[in-house]
Design goal:
Layout: H1 4-18, E1 25-30, E2 33-39, H2 42-45, H3 52-60, H4 65-68, E3 72-75, H5 81-90, E4 94-97, H6 107-112, E5 116-119, H7 123-135, H8 137-143
Parallel strand pairs: 3-4, 4-5
Antiparallel strand pairs: 1-2, 1-3
C-alpha cells in the first residue's frame, strides 16, 4: 500500500520536473492533513533557496510552534544542510525520506538532534533522481553546491 503523503511528495517532484526543474518534492503533514506542499523551484524562480522542503514550509505559511512540533515532513530526497536547518529550527520531530542513494543529506545531524528519520528507498523516487542526474549533471551539481 502506497503512503498517501509520500505519494503527494512524489507528485510534487513530478510537477517540478514538468516545469523544467529538479524533481524533488515535499509535504508537511500534521493531524493527518497536508499543511503545505512544494517542490524544488530553484530553476523556475531563479531562487537559491527554494528546495522542495523550503517550498513546502513556505506554502504552509506561519504556523504556531506546537504545530511544527507535531508534524512530519515527507521529502522525496534526503534533506540538505539548509533544509535540515529549517527542520531543526522549527522543531519538526519526524522526517520520512523517499530515498538517499543518489544524495545523502544531513540525516546524521538530524538524528543526533532527536529527529526520527525513516528512509523508504522508494523505487519512483530513485528513478526520478537517477534519470534526472544522468540527463542534467550540471544542473544537479549546481543545486547541491558542487
Amino acid at each position: 500500500m502506497t503512503d498517501p503523503f509520500l505519494a503527494a511528495a512524489i507528485a510534487e517532484a513530478e510537477q517540478g520536473l514538468r516545469e523544467g526543474g529538479i524533481p524533488i518534492g515535499s509535504v508537511l503533514v500534521s493531524g493527518g492533513k497536508i499543511l503545505g506542499r512544494g517542490h524544488n523551484r530553484r530553476v523556475q524562480k531563479g531562487s537559491p533557496v527554494l528546495h522542495g522542503e523550503m517550498d513546502a514550509l513556505e506554502k504552509a505559511g506561519r504556523l504556531p510552534a506546537a504545530v511544527y512540533r507535531d508534524a512530519t515532513l515527507y521529502t522525496t530526497l534526503s534533506p540538505c544542510a539548509m533544509c535540515s536547518g529549517a527542520i531543526l529550527l522549527y522543531g519538526i520531530p519526524r522526517v520520512i525520506i523517499g530515498e538517499n542513494g543518489t544524495f545523502r543529506g544531513e540525516e546524521e545531524l538530524l538524528a543526533s538532534r532527536g529527529v526520527a528519520i525513516e528512509v523508504r528507498q522508494d523505487a519512483t523516487c530513485i528513478r526520478l533522481m537517477t534519470e534526472f542526474i544522468r540527463a542534467h549533471p550540471d544542473l544537479w551539481n549546481e543545486d547541491i553546491g558542487v
